[in-house]
Automatic annotation (TrEMBL):
Residues 235-563 form the USP domain. Residues 1-102 are annotated as: Disordered. Residues 85-99 have a biased composition (Acidic residues). Pfam families: UCH, zf-UBP. Belongs to the peptidase C19 family. The gene is LOC110764540. It comes from Prunus avium (Cherry). One of its GO terms (biological process) is spliceosomal complex assembly. It is found in: Nucleus. Residues 113-210 form the UBP-type domain. This is U4/U6.U5 tri-snRNP-associated protein 2-like. Keywords: Metal-binding, mRNA processing, mRNA splicing, Nucleus, Spliceosome, Zinc, Zinc-finger.
Amino acid sequence: MNCKREHDDDARVNAEGFESDPKRQKWNGHSSPSSSPPPPASEGSLLPGFNYGDEDDEDNQRRPPVDGYRGDGGDNQRDIKSGAEVEEEEEDDDDDDLEQGLYRRSREIEVRRDCPYLDAVNRQVLDFDFEKFCSLSLSNLNVYACLVCGKYYQGRGKKSHAYTHSLEAGHHVYINLRTEKVYCLPDGYEISDPSLDDIRHVLNPRFTEEQVEQIDKNKQWSRALDGSDYLPGMVGLNNIKETDFVNVTIQSLMRVTPLRNFFLIPKNYQHCKSPLVHRFGELTRKIWHARNFKGQVSPHEFLQAVMKASKKRFRIGAQSDPVEFMSWLLNTLHADLRTSKKDSSIIYECFQGELEVVKEIPKKGIEKKEIGDDQNTDVVTENNGIVKERYKMPFLMLGLDLPPPPLFKDVMEKNIIPQVPLFNILKKFDGETVTEVVRPRIARMRYRVTRLPQYLILHMQRFTKNNFFVEKNPTLVNFPVKNLELKDYIPLSTPKENERLRSKYDLIANIVHDGKPGEGSYRVFVQRKSEELWYEMQDLHVSETLPQMVALSETYMQIYEQQQ
């Protein structure tokens, strides 16, 4: 009888070695001796139902242990079951459901305040600036940082890399980089200890609206773990490889108060799905965070997002133009932040102004359909065969033309470096000065600023490219650091009755290029508002400087703030 019953049990096993009832398809380590263990992982087959990720996500995959798995295969067929056997299986199903509820309750993670391994946490090696990828599997799912050695590992389950590392290296404290929960491995309990809050703040800096309002009044220095002092907002950025053009652009934009305040609070852009927007916000919060473990920030994650969004137009290891990068970054952030085509964004609120353009084109060589394509164009055809188009266009930055340098050397056999006042080259936008262009066709252009932005970006067109090489114009531009009054040099439209004409600007950032064209390096002078001091920043080097020194360099791009 016993033999016959064992044969019937074996007959209910299908060809793959599992019982036909799905609730019984798990092997139980405590089953009868006749059941064989599952095949080892080393043979290349994955354990059935095993999740290689985080144990928190295993509720749907794991089942409570159920006796009855047999790996010997049996007869690979099913016998017809009697009514008594069906009733017996239904009772077993009820037992399984009860067992599963008890099993899930026992799976709840224990939370403990006392962990004996907390003294092993080494804050000196923690660096959360790099991408959140497992150092072994290169996966970004369920990544934990070892708080003893600083390395990233995946998962918390018994076959995961973090679990293996905890056994091999004896490092027991790990933080989930997404949820910020801290666990002790291999024990598996969660650690609840307020002494770890400083690590959570470095992993994900956070600001309240009150802190954001007070940030420009803060004159206090912060101290890093190595004992060095740094100013929040004035931290150096790591030059990963020829990425100084990104660093100077970021440092300049950090001085634009409304833009900085917007990105310091993540709920302002939580609707946005763009990785570039979130990485830029994360970098902004790290630069202005007062509790960093070190006095510099590495923009590694932001650069990865830039490479992906720009399709490697801007990438690590290739020098690029900060003017091109600034233009691309502002337009991309605006496109990602707005919810519909009609919406504005914080980018346009800060930087967008308006120009009136008058274009004069010889009538021959122009097709009829090209005349007045723009809805805002007012076309006037003059008698002498010149078509005049007048239209308005928005701008985010203004390009200024430098006078050509002298061709010949002076008596001392040296080239004289010419100097030009900023007001002279601003006359391009007075509505009367003619600028001749050859692309897309020969035309004479006149520009007039009709609306000034809150933050005005000017760039000096120093580099000219011909068929053979790139030339750099060394002309020095003389400009005021404070009280740039534009209405004296540019005719501005009269404001409305209730509005006041705001045409006075103060310099807040000045980007400089040193060296030969195509090579060289970029540095930036920025102003710290709390003390109105000027700092020179080149990658990791930050030093205080005099306002008089700002105007002595070959300026390339400037940001001016409108006086309120």
